[in-house]
Each structure stands twice: as structure tokens, then as C-alpha cells.
Write a structure and sequence with these properties.
Two copies of one chain form a homodimer. Chain A contains ten helices and 14 strands. Chain A is α/β, with parallel strands linked by helices. The termini of chain A are far apart. Chain A is globular and about 65 Å long. In chain A, the strands form four sheets. In chain A, strands 2-10-9-8-5-3-4 form a seven-stranded mixed β-sheet, with helices on both faces. A three-stranded antiparallel β-sheet of chain A has the order 11-12-14. Chains A and B meet through α1, α3, α4 and α7 of A and α1, α3, α4 and α7 of B.
Chain lengths: 365, 365
């Protein structure tokens, strides 16, 4: 493999992927070993692809200890399409779905659900710019709700649940796009977990859905629902109802394998905690930088921080980019800086950013 | 680039891609030149990706001479999701959509449309196993219909329109998944064209939609429609409402560039005609093989044929596969053999198949 010049990529998603995964994709891109065709060319009905799909699912089940009464689906459309599919499949007539409005993406999910049925906003921190997560005591939950929807990590605002909301027997549905498999997860605590792949587990274009069978069964035989939006159809066809995003599934499989080889979710959790701790320590060190998220709710994935003025922030981003630290500009809706440091983000990049921050403070403090 | 052993891939989709495209993807897979990040890792809001997207669109406009009052969209979900999006966006209350039921995929489109609104089956050749296309004189069109839906190439049955149905002022909506950009197209004859990429223009996971602006505008401000299924939203956001299938768009762009470099649609049409003619000539040569599609409706993309017995067909497919001719088994719903010979399928593969057929006939005839 030729050595290539790679920058440190702090993008919020699509985001950095493990270099060994990229190298494997590269090495077999023109023809999969022993197959004579590229993974981009093989039929989704071929034994080769069926094996890729089965391996990806088996490795996900192994990595996250997914109980046998949960389906693992590979879909398209990202979390944004899940915002509609979740209520279209799970929110029956006469039922209410509870939504925890804890961030910009949570609000989008909530808006789509309102098109489908009755929604109760269980809590909202929108008035505080979503700088903190609602507390358990603030939740107004509907008895017998169809489900409670939560966004486990809020990419834009830099907050993340370290303890899940308690919702009793009601199914918890989670958009885990930006923290999935960043640490151990008890899948049995959820009714359904969904995640666009492009942050922690692969390239854009494939969406992972892990759903309890009784929830999947809700849409069985539902002839009114567009077939492509029906969880039950995708489950019955093991994600092969139509041509799946084959390359995305293949790449996700390699990322999952990389996580397993690394020691699984406990191992990546340790690395992620160490990376985030280094960065937050620097943010908190002198007061020159200022973290924007409530300290108790700080995300290990998206570290949001600001400087004294927007001019200084522009300068910071510009000089960081020139120094090979790419993608540090905060989301356009909140400004400031954001360092997205997902599973595949290398610790050396954290060290480089911390050094850059210290140098920047020395020059501009 | 190391030489790799590649087979001839007759798969109906995902299908063979141009080798130079695969080699370019491979060469820059770990880091795009001058960018330091893989195309799998770059933000969809980055200048790099915006340039990839803009170039893909510009090249498509150039290749197919797309009029300026048409939008070019890159979506997810394949043709199967378009089966629902088309009526959800274009079929208003009190309106009727005409569907030409000319193949197995046309029937699927029709079934999804019926969930959304009023549908008239303008003609059907289902009773003849879709072995021919309905004639113009057989069409029962609804005056003032919202649109007429047609499948321009029927992948499973091996039929293809060489002359479009005449539908007057009613917008013609075409599923062109299996023959898009296989020859010159007058886009102005259509209201909307859609195509899953994985046959003629790229890998699975990205769907091309080319739609006239007045049709796109029909869903503007439609708050009831799921946002992700709204053409108008995708058009307003230049396919960047949410994270797009970035890799698929990049790969499609390279395939389009390859077509342009080859001489565009007239050039590929000549190649496709020559390839198909060689194969049909062999099928018709002695009567040992039998084409299944009506001769006037024969597809240049999917060549379907049978042998005297299913045993002999199994033997043919098995021995062909062993000889490096992969994917010749017909669709499970019709049996027999199918040679899918899309744009990127090399002429040398046709010659190899013809030789194999002659040899097979000599041994088994």
C-alpha cells in the first residue's frame, strides 16, 4: 500500500473511517479475492453478497450482544427517513408517541412524527438551545404510549446520554446515529435503535435498524404502508426486499470487524473516554476556551466549544485547517467549534488538536 | 495497478462497472488527491463534495442534454422507493394516474401507486407473461391524467421500448433503471425519469431522478408528505437536505464521465446495438436456443433465452459459470437464461458467450 498524506478529519459526518478498513476496501476494490468482480458489481442475490450480509449481521450481533428476539436491518435514507418510518410503523391510531426534544435532530424527528399521528413532547430543552439534556424528573410520559423517542447523542449541541431515560414498559426508540457502538449498549433496554452509518460505523448511504420482533411485527400485513417503508417487509426479506446499499453494508461490516478485533465495545469505550477527557481538560484549563454543553451532559463524540469572539473562532478554524486539522467549524445553526471524535478518530489527532489549542492560546490569549 | 483476474459478469444488477472507473476509485480510495481524506469520509457540506456533486450533475446534463427546466436529483431507496414517491408527489386527489403494465417491475410500481390514489391500468400484457410490450393502439389513456407511468426496459422479461408511448400532453413518467443512458434520450419527452444506478450508471445505493420543474413544484409546501419523500425539498436543497449517498454519487459521476469520454450516448448506443445483435443472432441461428421476448420488443440490455429443457438450462448455467461467464441464470420468476449486457459490459464478454453457446450446442444439440 502506498503511503498517502491524510489529514485529521474532525467532520461530524460523514466522518473519519479506520485506516485499515479503507486499505482493505482499496486492496479488493477492483475484484474481491476469489470472486473476480468488485463488491460494487456483484448481484445482491449472489452467494458472495449473501455471505457479506450475513457476516455483517452476525458481527453486529456479537459486538453488541443483540438478543435473538431483535431483528437487524440494513436500510437506506439515513436517520431522516427513520424519522418517518418509526411513527408510520409503530404509532397506531388512537395511540400517542412521546418525544424527548433534546436537540436539533430530535426536533426534526418530532416534526415528522407529528405528520403521522399524535405526539406528546415529554420534555424540551429547546429554550436553552439544547445545551443540556432533560432530567428524568422533567419527563411527562404518557401511560401506555406507543413508544418514547430519544436522541442518545446530539451531534450539533454536543450532549450525550450517559444514563438512559427510564420509560417503564413503554418501548424506548433511539436515534443513536452519532454514538452507536461507541461503548457498551444493553440492546434489551430498547424497543428500536436506528443509526445512519456515516458517523461511527461506516460510510453514508446505509442505515442500521435494530428492532424488537414484536415492534417489527406491528407492520406485518399492513397493505396501506409503502412497501419500502415497512419494517416487517425488510425483516421478512432479510434486508433484500429490493437491491440494498451493498457497498455500504460491506464497508459497515469491515468497520464492525475492526471494532471486534480492537476488543469490542468495552475497549472502544475506554479509548473514547480517554480521547474526550484530554480535549475537555484542555477546554476547561484556563477559560480561554469555553465548552457549550452542560458539563454533566457532555458528549464523548462531539465536543463543542467557543472562543471569546466570532473573529477569533474564524481565525482558529482557518489556522487549524491549514495545520491539517479539518472540519472543526461548528454547525451553522450554533456557530463556534466542534470536534467530532468518533470511534475511528485517532488519538494522535486529539493530541495534535490539544497542542494546536495551546499554541493558539499562547498567540491570541 | 496490479492485474486482477476478472470474470465476465452478466448480472442484472448490481452489474458490471467500467474497469477504468473501478481503477480510479481504487487509486484514490484512501485519500482523494489533494484532500487527505477518503471520499467515504468527507463531509457532504465540504467544498470537495459540493464539487463532486456539481460535476456529476453537470456531466449528466451534458450527456443527456437535459433541458434547463428539469431538476437532477440524487436520492436513495432505488426504483422501489420511487414507486411510492412518484404517486405521493404527483397524483393529486381526484386525479387518475395511468400505468402501462408491461413487466414485473411495472406491476410493482402499479401496486404501490394504488396505495396512494386512483390508478388506471392503461394496458397490460401480464396474461402473456409480459413477453411483449403493449401496442400504442392497446392503450386506454385517461384524458387529463396526472401522468402515464411506463417501464422503458423490462429487466426480467427482456423487453425494451424503442419508440416511446404517445401520451399527448400528459406527463410521461419512466422507470428507466435498466436502460438509462444506454442510448440517446429526448428528456423533454418525459415529465420525470427515475433510475436505480446499479445497472447502467453506478453502484447500488443511489437513485437518479430527472424531473420537470412544474412536476417538482407540485409538492412544494406539502407539509403532510414525509420530508424525505418530497421531491421539492430535495430539489430546493440540491440533494443535500440530509446526508446523501456520497460514495454512490461520486461513483456515478465517474461512470457518466466515462460515457462522455467514450463519445456520449450516440457512441454507447452503437456499441450496445452491436453487442445485442451478436447475441440475438446466435440465439436465432439454429433453434437450439429460443429467445423469450417478442422479436420487435427485444431489449438491448437484458437478453432472455431458453433451452429445450430445464435440465439443459441448469447444465448451461453451471458450465458457463465454470468458464468465467457469471450471472446467466434467469430471474427466478421466469427461469431460463438472461444475459444482462449493460453499457459497461465488455464486447469481449459477448464474444466469449457466443463461443460458449456454439460449443454447448455442439456438445448437447
Amino acid at each position: 500500500m502506498t503511503t498517502v498524506n491524510r489529514v485529521f478529519n474532525f467532520s461530524a459526518g460523514p466522518a473519519v473511517l479506520p485506516l485499515p478498513v479503507l486499505e482493505q476496501i482499496q486492496s479488493e476494490l477492483v475484484a474481491l479475492p476469489g470472486v473476480g468482480m468488485s463488491v460494487l458489481e456483484i448481484s445482491h442475490r449472489s452467494k458472495t453478497f449473501e455471505a457479506i450480509l450475513a457476516k455483517a449481521e452476525a458481527d453486529i450481533r456479537s459486538l453488541a450482544n443483540v438478543p435473538s428476539n431483535y431483528k437487524v436491518l440494513f436500510l437506506q435514507g439515513g436517520a431522516s427517513l427513520q424519522f418517518s418510518m418509526v411513527p408510520m410503523n409503530l404509532l397506531g391510531q388512537g395511540q400517542t408517541a412521546d418525544y424527548i426534544d433534546c436537540g436539533s435532530w430530535a426536533e426534526k424527528a418530532l416534526k415528522e412524527a407529528k405528520k403521522v399521528g399524535t405526539v406528546n413532547v415529554a420534555a424540551s430543552t429547546k429554550g436553552e438551545n439544547y445545551s443540556r439534556l432533560p432530567k428524568q424528573s422533567e419527563l411527562t410520559l404518557t401511560p401506555g404510549a406507543a413508544y418514547v423517542h430519544v436522541t442518545t447523542n446530539n451531534t450539533i449541541e454536543g450532549t450525550e446520554y450517559s444514563t438512559l431515560p427510564q420509560v417503564g414498559d413503554v418501548p424506548l426508540v433511539a436515534d443513536a446515529s452519532s454514538d452507536i457502538f461507541s461503548g457498551p449498549v444493553d440492546v434489551s433496554k430498547f424497543g428500536l435503535i436506528y443509526a445512519g452509518a456515516q458517523k461511527n460505523i461506516g460510510p453514508a448511504g446505509v442505515t442500521l435498524v435494530i428492532a424488537r420482533e414484536d415492534l417489527v411485527a406491528k407492520s406485518a400485513g399492513n397493505k396501506a404502508l409503502p412497501t419500502m417503508l415497512n419494517y416487517s417487509v425488510h425483516a421478512e426479506n432479510t434486508s433484500l426486499y429490493n437491491t440494498p446499499p451493498a457497498f455500504g453494508i460491506y464497508a459497515m461490516g469491515l468497520v464492525i470487524k475492526w471494532l471486534l478485533d480492537l476488543g469490542g465495545l468495552p475497549a472502544i469505550a475506554e479509548i473514547n473516554k480517554r480521547k474526550a477527557a484530554k480535549l475537555y481538560a484542555e477546554i476547561d484549563r484556563t477559560g480561554f476556551f469555553r465548552g457549550t454543553a452542560n458539563k454533566d451532559d457532555r458528549s464523548l463524540m462531539n465536543v463543542t466549544f467557543r472562543l471569546g469572539s466570532e473573529e477569533l473562532e474564524s481565525k482558529f478554524v482557518k489556522e487549524a485547517t491549514a495545520a491539517g486539522l479539518d472540519g472543526l467549524k461548528g454547525h451553522r445553526s450554533v456557530g463556534g467549534m466542534r470536534a467530532s471524535i468518533y470511534n475511528a478518530f485517532p488519538e494522535a489527532g486529539i493530541d495534535a488538536l490539544v497542542s494546536f489549542m495551546q499554541e493558539f492560546e499562547r498567540k491570541n490569549g
